[in-house]
Amino acid sequence: MRTQPTTPTPGELRERILDAAEECLIELGYNTRLHAVIAERAGLSRPTLYKHVGDQSAILEALFQREISRFFVVLDPVLRGRQSQLQVRFVDAVVFAVQYARGHRLLQKGLRDDPEVVLPWFTVKAKPMIELGAQLLTPHFERLFSPEELSGVSPTAISEWAFRIIGSLIITEGIVDTSDERALREFVRSLLSVAFMPQPDPTIP
């Protein structure tokens, strides 16, 4: 007895569309008219694309939000690492984030070939990403900080500060070679030495 093929759920269709969009952007660039090529690659009609994701701007926004959500999934073990000192763990997280971005094909494609499309998501259009980052990072900071430390600073503000540091290191060139992990780590440590975090106790491993 032949089984009938199952109808994809709206969530499955959306993921299928975004997977095809990611492939098209990496292959063809951000200025490609996406709907026609995505529809062909995903085996869907253009009206289906509009229904489940929207226009080209909405597709790009959905991709960015999906990628940053995926990033926080892989960042979670770093924030939950064995290192007991908050400052060291924070440095680890920033270094991890910057190096993750350097190896991210979709992001690097945009920064290299179509920066006018990608850069606004780190600048004038950054608010949704900052809000999502704060939503995902705040529980970690609430766990990592003591009640006394939290009395003087907002976890949401710390999350936004972290996003701004990471974003600037990803999109702007400076005196620090971000491909050099040791140099990057020392630079982030120097930033924290003038910020809200105390210096680590050298007697604590």
Automatic annotation (TrEMBL):
SUPFAM superfamilies named in the record: Homeodomain-like (SSF46689)
Annotated ranges, domain HTH tetR-type: 11-71
Keywords, ordered alphabetically: DNA-binding
Regions recorded as binding DNA: 34-53
Listed Gene3D superfamilies: Tetracycline Repressor, domain 2 (1.10.357.10)
Pfam families with a match to the protein in the record: TetR_N
InterPro entries: Homeodomain-like_sf, HTH_TetR
Domain of life: Bacteria
Protein's UniProt name: TetR/AcrR family transcriptional regulator
Organism (species): Rhodococcus tibetensis
Lineage, broadest ranks: Bacteria, Bacillati, Actinomycetota, Actinomycetes, Mycobacteriales
